[in-house]
Specification:
binds nicotinamide-adenine-dinucleotide, 7 helices, single chain
Length: 242
């Protein structure tokens, strides 16, 4: 049965990237339950929602996707730059092409997305860029991903300053370990072990991030911009055991 919300996004038009699965899917579903019209964008098929094809690394693809959204719904009030890839590769093993690809999708993608939607956004709009705990700390064997997620935080702050005079807010969410297809291969069989290492004693679920995105998208966050919201069950607060 479809979830009943309380209308916290009533009347708003939202684009969520990477909405075919994982956190993007949860955000699209929760936003819709809270009254938003949601355009679900992905390289994968999202035809069961109000879906549109989008490769976030291409400005042409952004132009086409935003044109569809604006044609259908007239404007954009919320953009969640959620799509990303998580390729394995350390400083010795990552090729230049691999490094450029992860930056293209994870860091250039949100930049292109903001530029594409801004002409259709007005005062009160909200942009949410999904970074990671890898935006504040490195991970072994993920040099490109870590660099991209640090970059997303900088992009967020600079854009927030540029857009504050127009009443458009830009914030980053830094998820901890979230149970999605992105990390499933890396954590297979280790779920309980990883959960016990997190202060809240479990891995995050996509809904945990969607709830935070809902808050930042809503007018409840009207005076919040240029900030990082860490959503990680306390993971970043811990000192590693020696
Ligand atoms: N899962 C985690 O533990 C975790 C932790 C921290 C941050 N994050 C971040 O959260 C966000 C969502 O991740 P997830 O865990 O739901 O991952 P996921 O892999 O389950 O979903 C990512 C979605 O992005 C889409 N995508 C990939 N490349 C794309 C492109 N070029 N254009 C359009 N869509 C594209 C995929 O098709 C997929 O539907 C990502 O930004 C990720 O970096 C995830």
């Amino acid at each position: 049965m479809a979830e009943q919300g309380t209308g916290r996004l009533a009347g708003k038009v939202a684009i969520v990237t990477g909405a075919a699965r994982g956190q993007g899917r949860a955000e699209a579903e929760l936003f819709a339950a809270e009254g938003a019209v949601v355009v679900a964008a992905d390289v994968l098929d999202v035809s069961d929602l109000d879906g549109v094809h989008l490769d976030v690394s291409s400005s042409e693809s952004w132009a086409a996707a935003v044109a569809v959204a604006v044609e259908r719904h007239g404007r954009v009030d919320v953009l969640v730059n959620n799509a990303a890839i998580y390729p394995k590769g350390g400083i010795d093993s990552t090729t230049e092409a691999e490094y450029r690809q992860v930056l293209d999708i994870n860091l250039v993608g949100p930049f292109l997305g903001m530029q594409a939607v801004l002409p259709h956004m007005g005062e009160g709009a909200s942009i949410i860029n999904i970074s990671s705990l890898n935006g504040v700390a490195g991970s072994v064997d993920h040099v490109g991903y870590t660099a991209s997620k640090f970059g997303v935080r900088g992009l967020t702050r600079a854009a927030a300053l540029d857009l504050a005079p127009r009443g458009i807010r830009v914030n980053a969410i830094l998820p901890g370990v979230i149970d999605t297809p992105m990390i499933a291969p890396a954590i297979s069989g280790l779920e309980d072990y990883i959960g016990k290492g997190i202060p809240m004693q479990r891995m995050g679920q996509p809904r945990d991030i969607a709830s935070a995105a809902l808050f930042l998208a809503s007018d409840d966050a009207a005076w919040i911009t240029g900030t990082d919201l860490i959503v990680d069950g306390g993971h970043y607060a811990t000192v590693p055991k020696l």
